From TrEMBL:
The active site is at Y314. SUPFAM superfamilies: FAD-binding/transporter-associated domain-like, FAD-linked oxidases, C-terminal domain. InterPro entries: Alkyl-DHAP_Synthase (IPR025650), FAD-bd_oxidored_4_C (IPR004113), FAD-bd_PCMH (IPR016166), FAD-bd_PCMH-like_sf (IPR036318), FAD-bd_PCMH_sub2 (IPR016169), FAD-linked_Oxase-like_C (IPR016164), Oxid_FAD_bind_N (IPR006094). The lineage of its organism: Eukaryota, Metazoa, Ecdysozoa, Arthropoda, Hexapoda. GO terms for biological process: ether lipid biosynthetic process. Its EC number is 2.5.1.26. Its cofactor is FAD. This is Alkylglycerone-phosphate synthase.
Length: 345
């Protein structure tokens, strides 16, 4: 259940068995000069069928779309028989669309066996970038303006201060020259630009497409960021921040060996409530930890996607449960407090 069944170069669609893992699918497509462009955080472990069943979203949705934008046809086996459309067309004017019923059904209706996806030729240009902002609020304001102008690159993600510091800890140890260079950068950011290390945050960018399109997109964003106190921070930092997404999955499993329970949660929110939501969630987590006697905990977030009417925010939670009783009970209470916070914000 993990094969590419066929690929149509003329219509730019490919049929896959649903059990194929994301990175394996992209590896095989790349050999043929194509990509689906769908890259969720779980890309290295999750399957195509899982993406459809959970109505997954990818980090590069600004260019390629979410899974519901990529799916052309789904074959699903149910207790009553096989559910599938008998045509392959780009759009139907009648409804309901059975694809949309299957998308997000999470296995409750049947077993997805085959998926027909849109594909694209590999982008001719791929470039990372990053921007440093004096505060999380300024970064969110910038993202809102980018969304208004429809200037989003393939990926645009804003790390809060806590996640930015977390990423710095994971950075490989520098050489002597690297340490000197880092010192110069820190001096420039804190002394010349006047950024407070306890409030500044970083945005990571990924540009994909024709080289001319990428250059225009870069120029637009780097010029616009100045209006919000930001400045470009280099391609290397952008790539490192982008890859942090995949690293976190491994860190979570490693943390369990040291009695650290960690989890990630996401939600979408209107633009005018984004900053308030982040502030409230962090407050509720800190308060809940104090009540549970948890002294060693971590809560950070990043804005991962932009839409016309709002954005998506990922929260990362972690705590050390050593000597605190049943970690599952603690985790469940921890999670419920944040679900409540989402509802009241």
């Amino acid at each position: 259940m993990n094969r590419i069944l066929w690929l149509d170069k003329e219509n730019l669609v490919a049929c896959f068995e649903s059990g194929i893992v994301g990175q394996d699918m992209e590896r095989e497509l790349k050999k043929l000069g194509y990509t689906s462009g769908h890259e969720p955080d779980s890309y290295e472990f999750s399957t195509l069928g899982g993406w459809v069943a959970t109505r997954a979203s990818g980090m590069k949705k600004n260019v390629y779309g979410n899974i519901e934008d990529l799916v052309v046809h789904v074959k699903m086996v149910t207790p009553k028989g096989v559910l599938q459309k008998n045509c392959q067309v780009p759009r139907l004017s009648c409804g309901p669309d059975f694809n949309h019923i299957i998308l997000g059904s999470e296995g409750s209706l049947g077993v997805i066996t085959e998926v027909l996806l849109k594909i694209r030729p590999l982008p001719k240009c791929k470039k990372y970038g990053s921007i440093v902002f004096p505060s999380f609020e300024k970064g969110v304001e910038f993202m809102r303006e980018v969304a208004k102008r429809k200037w989003q690159p393939a990926s645009i993600r804003l790390m809060d201060n806590e996640q930015f510091k977390f990423a710095l800890i994971l950075k490989p140890e520098s050489t002597y020259f690297g340490l000197v260079l880092d010192g110069i950068k820190k001096f420039y950011i804190t002394m010349i630009k006047g950024f407070d290390p306890d409030f500044m945050c970083v945005m990571t960018l990924l540009f994909e497409g024709e080289e001319s399109e990428v250059k225009i997109n870069e120029k637009n964003l780097y010029n616009l960021c100045k209006n919000y106190g930001g400045f470009p921070a280099g391609e290397q930092n952008g790539e490192r921040g982008y890859m942090l997404t995949f690293v976190i999955a491994y860190i979570r499993d490693l943390g369990l060996q040291f009695e650290v329970v960690a989890e990630s949660f996401e939600t979408s929110v209107p633009w005018d409530r984004a900053v308030k939501l982040v502030r409230n969630v962090k407050h509720v987590v800190a308060d809940e930890c104090r009540q549970l006697g948890i002294t060693h905990f971590l809560i950070n977030c990043r804005v991962t996607q932009t839409y016309d009417a709002g954005c998506v925010i990922y929260f990362y939670l972690g705590f050390n449960h050593c000597g605190l009783g049943d970690p599952v009970t603690l985790h469940n209470r921890y999670v419920k407090s944040n679900v409540f916070c989402y509802k009241i914000t």
